[in-house]
């Protein structure tokens, strides 16, 4: 067995390789994580046959829990997208709050509609509405787009059933319902402060002269379509969360009771999402006149974008498995424990540094969970659910030029690189710091 300093050097080389391959060589994160896994295995002296078995076990153990959940979540998001449910929520909030509070409305839209959809999908889905509002009110696109983007990012990183949040919840053995509750407590005030409040300080409300030409080129407000009802849309989105949180509250019931068994079964993430998909088929599909072949087409369109996420999470699970089996995890745990740093701050810091380096919140969260997991044994009093939220809080920050999310926001808002860095990147850094503070505060009560 190699010494602890040697094993840590191996880990550092593996992380540097991930960053180099993703950022410089532009290799897919799945391949970069796989290469890093082999570097850790070979560098730590693992037998080759054991290394291959450990990799397979890591992939299978992670995706065995997640693959069906991510698939069902993808279907749910696609149904919300195709039905116009997100647009219905946005219209209702804009009507209720008024267009003078459009930045607050877009933040809330992102927070609600972002629960079942990925960041990029949610932003592209809602950008036409932002164009229309900006054109009617002559409000700066940044004033509307940054609050939307920040709230989508907060939900993306901190709330299951989003893939990365769900993955680290399983890796750390945390309770899904508690992660959802704690994530909501932290994410909503974070989105409020780093979204509408922050954007008032860093950009003017009135649109710049160049915006009108951009909107004339990109805005098409002639399209109208029948949208689903607001109540059914909201119920479709929150149904799986209610079921999963219900399982957490059912823990106080007698474990041999029928109520405990039924609620626990319905609150299992797989069952909760399956029920939500069936409900979405009816509420957003069949009830509105769609046929089963049309629903099948929507379902099939939801799967291709998931392949990349599944491969990244699977390779991340393999990286974590090899860290543990090679002894590198124990060496890292011992070193981190000696630093005497608050484990919540450490989890946040590792995730933030990884996101800054590789430009992927998903990779950052999976990698951070793998590095923090071995340390948790030395801190048995720290809530695993709080660590999950802390990792998500860290991964939110430093969304800049290495992240595809940054370019989606920049291009769809039609702003310069400087303005995007000044508004969106700084907003994510602020959001990450606020989320860390709220997570530390929450840790004193749970």
Structural features, described:
- The protein is mostly helical and 446 residues long.
- Helix content is 78%, strand content 0%.
- The protein contains 21 helices and no strands.
- The protein has helices at residues 4-24, 29-43, 48-83, 85-97, 102-113, 119-137, 141-158, 163-172, 176-202, 211-218, 230-249, 258-267, 269-285, 292-302, 306-326, 328-338, 343-358, 361-372, 384-396, 404-413, 417-443.
- Helix 5 (102-113) packs antiparallel against helix 9, helix 7 packs antiparallel against helix 19 (384-396) and helix 7 crosses helix 21 (417-443).
- The chain starts with a helix and ends with a helix.
- The mean pLDDT is 89.
In total, how many beta strands? 0
Strand count, sense and barrel status of the largest sheet are: none
**Total number of helices:** 21
The portion of residues assigned to helices is: over 70%
Unreliable stretches covering 5 or more consecutive residues? none
Quickly describe the structure.
The chain is mainly alpha-helical and 446 residues long. 78% of the residues lie in helices and 0% in strands.
SSE layout:
Elements: H1 4-24, H2 29-43, H3 48-83, H4 85-97, H5 102-113, H6 119-137, H7 141-158, H8 163-172, H9 176-202, H10 211-218, H11 230-249, H12 258-267, H13 269-285, H14 292-302, H15 306-326, H16 328-338, H17 343-358, H18 361-372, H19 384-396, H20 404-413, H21 417-443
Helix pairs in contact: 1-2, 1-16, 2-15, 3-8, 3-13, 3-14, 3-15, 4-5, 4-6, 5-6, 5-7, 5-9, 6-7, 6-20, 7-9, 7-19, 7-21, 8-15, 8-18, 8-19, 9-11, 9-19, 9-21, 11-12, 11-13, 15-18, 17-18, 17-19, 17-21, 18-19, 19-21
């Amino acid at each position: 067995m190699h010494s602890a300093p040697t094993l840590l050097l191996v880990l550092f080389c593996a992380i540097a390789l991930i960053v180099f391959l993703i950022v410089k060589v532009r290799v897919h994160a799945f391949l970069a994580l796989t290469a890093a896994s082999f570097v850790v295995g070979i560098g730590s002296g693992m037998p080759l046959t054991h290394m291959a078995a450990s990799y397979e076990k890591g992939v299978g153990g992670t995706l065995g829990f997640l693959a069906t959940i991510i698939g069902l979540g993808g279907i749910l998001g696609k149904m919300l997208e195709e039905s116009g449910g997100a647009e219905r929520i946005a219209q209702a909030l804009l009507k209720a709050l008024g267009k003078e509070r459009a930045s607050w409305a877009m933040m809330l839209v992102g927070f609600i509609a972002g629960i079942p959809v990925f960041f990029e999908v949610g932003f592209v889905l809602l950008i036409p509405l932002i164009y229309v509002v900006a054109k009617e009110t002559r409000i700066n696109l940044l004033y509307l787009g940054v609050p939307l983007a920040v709230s989508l990012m907060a939900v993306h990183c901190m709330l299951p059933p989003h893939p990365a949040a769900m993955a680290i919840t399983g890796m750390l053995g945390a309770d899904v319902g508690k992660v959802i509750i704690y994530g909501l407590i932290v994410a909503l005030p974070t989105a409020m402060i780093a979204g509408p409040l922050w954007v008032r300080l860093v950009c003017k409300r009135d649109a710049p002269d160049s915006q009108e030409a951009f909107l004339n080129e990109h805005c098409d407000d002639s399209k109208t379509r029948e949208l689903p009802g607001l109540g059914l849309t909201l119920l479709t989105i929150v149904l799986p969360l209610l079921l999963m949180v219900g399982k957490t509250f059912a823990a106080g019931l007698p474990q041999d009771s029928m109520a405990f068994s039924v609620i626990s079964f319905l609150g299992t993430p797989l069952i909760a999402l399956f029920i939500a998909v069936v409900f979405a088929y009816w509420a957003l599909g069949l009830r509105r006149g769609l046929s089963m072949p049309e629903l099948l087409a929507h379902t099939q369109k939801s799967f291709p974008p998931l392949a990349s996420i599944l491969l990244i999470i699977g390779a991340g699970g393999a990286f974590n498995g090899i860290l543990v089996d090679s002894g590198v995890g124990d060496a890292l745990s011992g070193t981190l424990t000696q630093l005497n740093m608050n484990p919540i701050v450490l989890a946040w810091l590792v995730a933030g540094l990884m996101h800054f380096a590789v430009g992927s919140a998903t990779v950052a969260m999976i990698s951070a969970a793998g590095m923090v997991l071995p340390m948790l044994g030395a801190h048995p009093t720290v809530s695993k659910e709080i660590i999950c939220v802390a990792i998500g809080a860290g991964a939110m920050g430093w969304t800049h030029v290495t992240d595809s999310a940054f370019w989606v926001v920049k291009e769809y808002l039609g702003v310069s690189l400087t303005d995007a860095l000044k508004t969106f990147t700084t907003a994510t850094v602020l959001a990450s710091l606020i989320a860390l503070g709220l997570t530390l505060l929450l840790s004193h009560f749970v």
